[in-house]
Amino acid sequence: MRKAQTAAKHIALSVQGRYADVRNDYDKVASTYDEYYSHNLAAAAERFTTLLPWEELERPSLRVVELAAGTGAITRRLADAVSVDSVLTAVDISEGMLAENQAKVRAEGQQVEFVVGDALEYLAAQPTDSIDALICAWGVCYMSHAKLRRELGRVLKSGAFIGIMENRKGTLKELEAVLLDVLMADAKLLRRAVKLDLPTDHRYIARRIAPDGSRVETGFDGESSRVVTNVDSIVEYVTKSGVSAGYLDAIEPDLFDQVIQGLRERIETAGPRNVPIVHRYSVVTARR
Ligand SMILES: C[S@@+](CC[C@H](N)C(=O)[O-])C[C@H]1O[C@@H](n2cnc3c(N)ncnc32)[C@H](O)[C@@H]1O
Prior knowledge:
This protein is of the alpha/beta class. Helix content is 43%, strand content 20%.
């Protein structure tokens, strides 16, 4: 009965367009994101970045765009590669995440144009056939895929490089099941609806996000799995890494501690070994 009430409330919030704001959640984890998310997914990020066309990125006068650039693990690699007369733009909706990125880029003495804002609004403001390479790691789940595909088809030059990496459906399902169990237990806990659009696999990204007529260079599904044996570390990962962005802002602020306590108790009961942290992700690189 309680689950049905929460489900009904979630539907009502969705219909009213009252969605959680991921910006708030990412602003809150900006200072801890690298220690948790970037650290945990370093091997996946490395696997992705080896597929970027590094020699080509050194050519003069390119426009290179990184969407959902976050704290900049990939931004700094790109900034190292591009030539001085190219323009590298890092776009992110979270001011906090981009501030971390900017501080690190400054410390390296690199040149990057930073834009705080929504990725799709940014693309909509760009001229047709104006971008030579577009990279987006762990960000397309927050965007309308149809709109992104349309804009990519318009703004990318013929032959432009596209690199996308994203968690796919079923990612973190063990952890999500526990969190949902807590949230579904009481409709009062929810104040906003959760809206995430995870791709099903790399084929989905190639078909539904890469623009019409793209030539896929690489596509694969990967997994990064870790068993954490202590409850505190799992709860810390939930609250400090950004993996729950879009969920945490959906929780009634006065009841936030109650949710975290419920999460802790359920992980203790299940046994932390039975709540592994498994990121399931997909990668596509393609040419427009
Ligand atoms: C998981 S982080 C990925 C950050 C970075 N790309 C990396 O590899 O670490 C997701 C990022 O997407 C950003 N984001 C979410 N929705 C966005 C949107 N509509 N437009 C631009 N950035 C967005 C968040 O603020 C956050 O920095």
